[in-house]
Amino acid sequence: MKSVKKITILGVGFMGGSLARALKKKFPSILVIGYARSKASYGKLIKLKIVDKLERSLAKAVVDSDIIILASPVLSIIEHFKKIAPHLKENAIVIDLGSSKEVIERAAEKHLPKKASFVGCHPLCGSDKSGAQFFNPDLYKGSICLITSAGGKGAKTIKEMWEKLGSKAVFINSRQHDKMLSATSHLTHLISFSLTDFVPKNYLKFAAASLKDLTRISNSPANVWADIFLSNKKNVLNDLDKFVKTLVNFGQLIKKGKREDIVDYINHINKKHRTITHLAKQKL
Amino acid sequence: MKSVKKITILGVGFMGGSLARALKKKFPSILVIGYARSKASYGKLIKLKIVDKLERSLAKAVVDSDIIILASPVLSIIEHFKKIAPHLKENAIVIDLGSSKEVIERAAEKHLPKKASFVGCHPLCGSDKSGAQFFNPDLYKGSICLITSAGGKGAKTIKEMWEKLGSKAVFINSRQHDKMLSATSHLTHLISFSLTDFVPKNYLKFAAASLKDLTRISNSPANVWADIFLSNKKNVLNDLDKFVKTLVNFGQLIKKGKREDIVDYINHINKKHRTITHLAKQKL
Q1: Where does B97-249 show beta strands of DSSP type E?
Q2: What is residue B195's predicted lDDT score, i.e. its pLDDT?
Q3: B225 touches chain A (CB under 8 A)
Q4: pLDDT at B131 (0 to 100)
Q5: B contact residues 129-148, partner A, Cβ 8 Å cutoff
Q6: Between residues 71 and 100 of chain A, which touch chain B (CB distance below 8 Å)?
Q7: Helix segments in A112-231, DSSP class H
Q8: For the segment B216-259, what is each residue's pLDDT rounded down to a tens digit?
Q9: Hey, is the C-beta of A215 within 8 angstroms of any chain B C-beta?
Q10: What is the pTM of this model?
Q11: Cα–Cα distance between A13 and A134 in angstroms, integer?
Q12: Higher-confidence residue: B33 or A40?
């Protein structure tokens, strides 16, 4: 990180805004630039004082920048590759925070110039809130950041950046990443959305704690999640299919009505669940 | 509640134990008796000092009691009806805290003597912890208690009891109750259990917050939930079928790949979700 003088963030929302503040906190001398396309978001971000400087021109925001962070929804990250390409300096490092990695990596390869390097990142943290106003400078502390481009020129610098911010950097290839995240996050959102859609509206005032738990992420933003589902379509549909089979099998067990079989099955699930709880409590 | 001198709790676990402490806190002069069948649970409960007196004989626990509270899993509540029937005093009120109400009401009608009255109760609160050691005397404060036997002789007294403990008592018939709880709680648990079963074990250490949210209730006790699924089988299987269709339709939307349609669908869900969040924040 020693040679880094200027960092630009495109997409100063909750994730990008929190990263801006985390970077300023850890590296006060680095200039952090934000990009705000619309007048409305410029006005909002200026008030929040979240970055050192806010640009409305993409060229100005990116020029001379050592690290460019793309923190918008997946499909818009791909659009940004094309737009920033002409303005990147020699040895610029471009990273993204998207939740699907294969399509992004392919697009980076296609659109970014050879003089720049790309490092795919996916910090495993977030919030059900969206918008820069909820920014949290400690968001990345104690979380895992998956890095999908171990081979790139900038990988070492970016690993160092995440580690200095208190994240644990873990290298994984983009194919494995997308397969894993489909199961651990994308399917989960699909289930929560579907459950909220399913529950009859007149029952909502009697929502038990369990329903509140399972629908908590149902306010995740539509544009972000439409992009994730579409950009990881194959894995998500595959997992959905398997999950539906798991549900139907459970239904069969209930239909058959052998109490002991249901008790055994739930006991097995209880045991597996303790692994999740145990891991959740581990310090990085 | 003025005429109530003695209350007996069968099933002094988390729910029953919390109720014992809530009753003692609000009505210090009422004698609260617990029943512990096994030596092990007797020893454990004696140490917790959760009730005024602990009995290992069901007859002794129930005799002269004004209110008998059945707080065990559903099928064991039904067994208790048969066992306590010969020992009930004139005008004794028997209530239960079970999560399925139709089978319980039918069993009460069949097994309890005419001199006693039955009031089905379902407090909409709980915890993913089980066991009397986690008892919380304020568990019922600010929660809803559904009462499914408005016509019974004891209904007025029991409504008063819940209200004095800070619960909002809502009358609903047992058929509607089971239909509603299937959608708001039973299906939710089935989904959580299935998701925990589904996720590949080697991915667990990278569990995102969303997965932790949705699997939180997967440690709910097997004996309790086997009974609930079996005692509300028809509604649960019916809702499971509808929910699977909702999932499959979402999958179709992703397969078709029209971004705007997915965005519209999630926006509609976001809006409905705000109703849940809004209701959750309401004071009773």
Answers
A1: 117-123, 144-147, 168-171
A2: 98
A3: yes
A4: 87
A5: 144, 146
A6: 75
A7: 155-164, 174-181, 187-198, 209-215, 222-231
A8: 999 999 999 999 999 999 999 999 999 999 999 999 999 999 99
A9: yes
A10: 0.91
A11: 9
A12: B33
To which H or E segment does residue B23 belong?
Answer: helix B14-26
CA angle centred on A229, ends B249 and A199, rounded to 5°: 45
Q: Give which of A124, A140, A192, A196 to mutate to test B binding, by max B Cβ within 10 Å.
A: A196
Sequence-separated (6 or more) residues with CB below 8 Å from residue A92: A62, A65, A66, A67, A68, A115, A116, A117
Region A114-140 average pLDDT: 90
- pLDDT value, residue B281: 57
Contact A222 B196 (CB under 8 A): no
Q: Which residues of chain B have pLDDT under 50?
A: 283-284
A269 → closest Cβ in B218, B268, B275:
B218
Structure tokens at B87: 């020992």
Ramachandran angles phi, psi of A246, nearest 5°:
-60, -45
In angstroms, what CA-CA distances link A95 with A78, A82, A148, A227? 12, 14, 10, 18
SS3 state at A141:
coil
Domains and CATH numbers, chain A: 6-175 (3.40.50.720), 176-281 (1.10.3660.10)
Q: What is the pLDDT of residues B84-123, one digit of tens each?
A: 999 999 999 999 999 999 999 999 999 999 999 999 999 9
Q: Both tokens of residue A149?
A: 């481009």
